[in-house]
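Lecture 7, part B: from sequences to assemblies.

Below are the input chains for today's worked example.
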Amino acid sequence: MNRLFFKKHTKVGARPGTLVIHKDAEKPRIRIIRFTPDEHFDNQVETIEQIRDELSKDGVVWIDVQGMGDEALIRAIGDHFSIHMLALADVVNVPQRPKTESYDLHQLYISRMVSVDEDHQLEVEQISIFFGRNFVLTFQERFGDVLDPVRKRIRSKKGPMRKSGPDYLAYAIIDTIIDGYYPVLEQYGEYLEQLEARLVADATPKMLAQINRIKRNLLILRRGIWPQRDAINILIRDESPFIEDDTKVFFRDCHDHCIQVADVLETFRETAGALLSTYLSAIGNKQNEVMRMLTIMASIFIPLTFMAGIYGMNFEQMPELKRWWAYPALLSTMFLTAGGMLWYFKRLGWIWTRHDDD
Amino acid sequence: MNRLFFKKHTKVGARPGTLVIHKDAEKPRIRIIRFTPDEHFDNQVETIEQIRDELSKDGVVWIDVQGMGDEALIRAIGDHFSIHMLALADVVNVPQRPKTESYDLHQLYISRMVSVDEDHQLEVEQISIFFGRNFVLTFQERFGDVLDPVRKRIRSKKGPMRKSGPDYLAYAIIDTIIDGYYPVLEQYGEYLEQLEARLVADATPKMLAQINRIKRNLLILRRGIWPQRDAINILIRDESPFIEDDTKVFFRDCHDHCIQVADVLETFRETAGALLSTYLSAIGNKQNEVMRMLTIMASIFIPLTFMAGIYGMNFEQMPELKRWWAYPALLSTMFLTAGGMLWYFKRLGWIWTRHDDD
Amino acid sequence: MNRLFFKKHTKVGARPGTLVIHKDAEKPRIRIIRFTPDEHFDNQVETIEQIRDELSKDGVVWIDVQGMGDEALIRAIGDHFSIHMLALADVVNVPQRPKTESYDLHQLYISRMVSVDEDHQLEVEQISIFFGRNFVLTFQERFGDVLDPVRKRIRSKKGPMRKSGPDYLAYAIIDTIIDGYYPVLEQYGEYLEQLEARLVADATPKMLAQINRIKRNLLILRRGIWPQRDAINILIRDESPFIEDDTKVFFRDCHDHCIQVADVLETFRETAGALLSTYLSAIGNKQNEVMRMLTIMASIFIPLTFMAGIYGMNFEQMPELKRWWAYPALLSTMFLTAGGMLWYFKRLGWIWTRHDDD
Amino acid sequence: MNRLFFKKHTKVGARPGTLVIHKDAEKPRIRIIRFTPDEHFDNQVETIEQIRDELSKDGVVWIDVQGMGDEALIRAIGDHFSIHMLALADVVNVPQRPKTESYDLHQLYISRMVSVDEDHQLEVEQISIFFGRNFVLTFQERFGDVLDPVRKRIRSKKGPMRKSGPDYLAYAIIDTIIDGYYPVLEQYGEYLEQLEARLVADATPKMLAQINRIKRNLLILRRGIWPQRDAINILIRDESPFIEDDTKVFFRDCHDHCIQVADVLETFRETAGALLSTYLSAIGNKQNEVMRMLTIMASIFIPLTFMAGIYGMNFEQMPELKRWWAYPALLSTMFLTAGGMLWYFKRLGWIWTRHDDD
Amino acid sequence: MNRLFFKKHTKVGARPGTLVIHKDAEKPRIRIIRFTPDEHFDNQVETIEQIRDELSKDGVVWIDVQGMGDEALIRAIGDHFSIHMLALADVVNVPQRPKTESYDLHQLYISRMVSVDEDHQLEVEQISIFFGRNFVLTFQERFGDVLDPVRKRIRSKKGPMRKSGPDYLAYAIIDTIIDGYYPVLEQYGEYLEQLEARLVADATPKMLAQINRIKRNLLILRRGIWPQRDAINILIRDESPFIEDDTKVFFRDCHDHCIQVADVLETFRETAGALLSTYLSAIGNKQNEVMRMLTIMASIFIPLTFMAGIYGMNFEQMPELKRWWAYPALLSTMFLTAGGMLWYFKRLGWIWTRHDDD
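Predicted structure of the full complex, as structure tokens:
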């Protein structure tokens, strides 16, 4: 739990703008894609000079930095793009709450990307996106191919991408990230259905832990999507000089997706809550079954034992003891008593009742 | 559950405007109704040219497309009406959240229609409505006769329909969709009453599953009606060039219906919550009954068995054993003891008590 | 439950303005009261002409229509007062949500009246009030004397009624309706107290049903009063030509009453929620009592029975069996054991403990 | 409960402004304090003339009316100060929701005073405060010394009181009332702590009733303080001619106190909720203890009784019965079995385990 | 609990501005730091004159007062800085709700500092910060080194501190306080994880008390951070003459931290709620285990005891008693019966089932 919230945080009272590079952080790789309506270039670069070079050329330039493990390089990039020291700290000291902030030379959008591993464990990664007059600059925590569909669309020449500016490219990146919530939702939806199916049969503490974990994960997902909804709303409403009016309709679509994701999350949270009440009632039902078994056994055999006890007494004057028919008669009485109890329990619906067919 | 939220969604990172045609989607059928105050025509058409033809004539034209199974045709219709590619994607990539959006040449209203099958399973379908200067264009997911009452009203010449523009026709369609929530509510209301009646007798896990399912369905209904309330409010408030002032009072009526539906849903959700607590307490009550049975049986027979045990001992010096009255005396004591216990349990209200008459 | 929400509703897709007259609806009776500061008249009328007649005279005219069972007459009245067809439908197709709407020639206020029968069952009735330049027109679902206090105040000449216009009369009617919530609240308050007192002794499923029913009724009351609060607020805020400034202070008082009713309802809902938790804990306590009884009986007698069992064995070498003091010694041991158990249970507070005095 | 909400209310449909004097209402006592920066006078008066007399003199006049039992006198005071009939009704027909209202000649502030008796029962009293150009007029339900600290501050000449106008005096009164919530909170805080300490040992239905009662009282307290927060906010924001700008900073302080009281109330409500869950779990724990006792007793003695039963059988061929070592051997086996069970229960942590030290 | 809310409060009806010095309050120590871009001075002072002296010199002056135990000195400082008597009361009469207030000569920001001792007990302290043209004046309840990181940054000459005004220094102090919430969150996060791990094994009332205590502490933390979020927002939005535009971006960062802290708190509260349901279900599971043990023991041995009882009867005509094979046959039957029961319980999953592996 802590891991998702406190991966790293600066020392209390540290100077604002302090960058906290985690010792396991990967060395940054920088990939530059530059495109005009007619051509496009895709390079791996290593130095600030190469970036500067690309920026001086025609077209939209997308600088994608993957990995945070080199403070000097990141500071150099920050200086080159005149990134405010607090903005740069937000990029490095993940996780930040998703938000958008407007600066003189660029717009910053901090997004949160989610994925699920095979054990239903949620993975969260921050992507920070700066976009200005002719560039988009993205920072990712780790190497990853999540933005490959965007690169493919740049290559393909179809659609408005190649003819549009950096705002459209930024939209495409954000849209891809938010689309990435759908498969996660799908997996959790299936997981919830599995849990629901297994629940009655298997109301164990471990099950409860799984329900609680899924609730927590749904909460984390909500914390990822809600602020993005607000941030995109700000992009649409505010008059940012970096966003064309034509692009706003695309952001509006993106905004709709955020709301839809939030709606589904809400439904899942309700479902998880229903699982909890199912779990608690399953415990109660199990107890009922155990009690019923005990009651049936005890109610049948305790009276019979009592009858046997009567004729185990040593009184001298117990005339029944001497009749030849007494023993078979008692046995029959016992059988009848047991049968009567069974019939009674059957009528109460405690035994030989099928509940779960349908 | 998933089915209602994820029938189909575009691939992560797909180009905006990508249409996802489900492989089972029905081939579209297009029906055109054109009417003036004096006459009306009703045709099945197949090509764009026929649509164009009708639109060039006098009167209000309603183009109703049922089924999504032909991407080319739908794109052609979209092009002809200059529908924005994102709007067209919203039409095809169902389900979208109900909303209204204003474009230069038409207003888009995305609605959600509900119905219930005999197994209380909720069916949800999206209807997308474009209306402009002289036309209404609707897209439905499947074939269906849900809008037949509107067609009938067009034919009948009574009421303001024939004298009004496309805004009134759009209102009539939306109103019919929202009216369609009432029978669904009615069915769920009856279902809730049935569940309530069966609950105490039949507090089984299956019952709980039904309560949870109904809660989920009520939630889905709310997700269908709340955004429509907002969307209709936007139609009333905003100065859309496609809505006459006279028509707004009708939309206001429609808005009232949305609120009423939402109110009833809220009450039903409370009722479903009450069912849950009834269910949990029914489990507790059952357990009490089982325990009581056990306690009564044990409390009566264990002391008696003990008494019998006493006189089953083999001490040589047990003078009682030799008295002729000893056995009958013990039997009487046993009867009295048992009777006393029964009287005590009766006084505690554990047996022979009628609770449920009134 | 359904009855309160769906008494009647129009067919899906019916033309707006369709009136649904229930087959059991009572034939309307029309009563006209006309008053000037100096005189007042009170007549039963039957035709539109008589109404027109009265309206052409001096003073404020109050036309009170009780019963909805004559569509022609109601349409005629609607036509005469130029009532919008949707407004007329709202009057007839009860229940509508309370609201106010402003038209050119009159203001419409839809109110909801409540009462409780002796079985704590809530009765809800809609009163629709139109008021214009010189008239107030009210529609009630059924015959009733709930507005008699207003008529009495008209007759009595005291207070501002006779000197004021139709807006004050409308206020007096609305105020009387809202005042009618107080006795209902009082009854439910007493009912809640009764339930609370009976609860611990009588935690039966029927009790739970009563708690749930009262919660539902409180919810229905809230649905009756909250929208009226908003509607009255609109009357106060909006510049309606039909409301004098002097009358607004009276509506403000009425608004305060709405809030007060809503506050009390809120408290009652909390109380009902507390009853639920009391109910559930009472079930738990009952179970504890049952279990305790069982445990005490079993803990005392099972060891004794075991002791008796020991000396019921048929070993040849059991020297104790032959001692004359053995039987009395065993009986004493048994007494001491039982006494020790009782002392122990007493110390645990399971028996002979008074909890409920204070 | 009713008592707090329905002490008295007007008949349904009564004329607005009707005063409902409760038959037990105390006869009003009127105390007039008049002060200028230099002098101050403190008199008991009986007639309107005396009040008029004081008002005609220099300085700020505070007329404090305690007790409502004289309609004629209260109406006379109302007339003299030109109090609107609805405002006067709000003063007399307690309890009203706290609020402030602005009239031409004075500002009305309706406040709610709270206190707790030794049985933790909440007492609520309404104080109505009118303040105008040179006077403050207060109405209290009963005699009481709660405003004595204010009188003392008037006498003492220290602080801004003597140099300020009626607005500051009104502030001082309101501030004293709101300060009066703190000791109440303190008492409930201590009561909650007591309840918490007693809870585990004493989870009786009476305890639950106390928790529910405290929750209800906290709710009543919140209903007393929240509307005052709003009312004071209105005093600060609105441009009342009766409040100097210099006094507003004092009202702002008063507003802060309201929020603080509300915060503490919120925390107490959470605590009371926690008590409820503690209570329910205590019931569950008690049940566990009872069950454990039963299970231990039964598990130990039932097998032993069975063993004894074996050798109580009358088969002719039971060679063990004849061995001299059989009886001691069986007794040893029984001891070992019992010991084994005890060891097993000890290992399960059911017996001889200390949980509550720390 | 009380301690945190009512450490001290003024007498009801006390004059506004009354200072309540707690008898254990520490004597104030005053430390003055004055710095210009080039130099910095750090002194312990004792008198107002020394403060005046420092203020007359160049640069930014930070007067840090630790301890409240000298009313005369604090009033003297208040007079010297023209602090409003209510503001001074807010400083001394802790705890106040965090807030910011704007005065003519300075801005007041009341903050709340948190820390956790080794027993997970929350410590809360109020820091009041005044900042004006050339000074920052802070009041702390107790001595403490929590602001040492700020002093170190003043000394270090790096960063914007030395070149900025008192607004930046105030920011640095507030930021340090809010950063101080992170380690507290981290500790509670770990504590929650520990509780979760121990919960199933150890569902004791003490555990519940710990869960409730952590919930209460999380609530106190929220009460500490939420109002600060609002207060910082006011600093950003309002046009305070004491805050430079360049500094606002830093306050915006601080605002983000507040939201992040609040988010984590929310998640923790959910987690604590999940612990509660885990706790309750653990009690239920324990009960199930106890019941199961009882049921298994009783179901196996009660029938066997009955069988033994049968052949303990003294009928003369029981032919089985005389057969040599009868005893071994009965013993075998008993073994088979017991084995059958065990097999049945095994099939029910009541025994020999591993649940918790994964």
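Note for the exam: Strands of chain B lie at 29-35, 40-45, 60-66, 99-102, 107-116, 122-131, 135-140. Keep this in mind when comparing with the next example.
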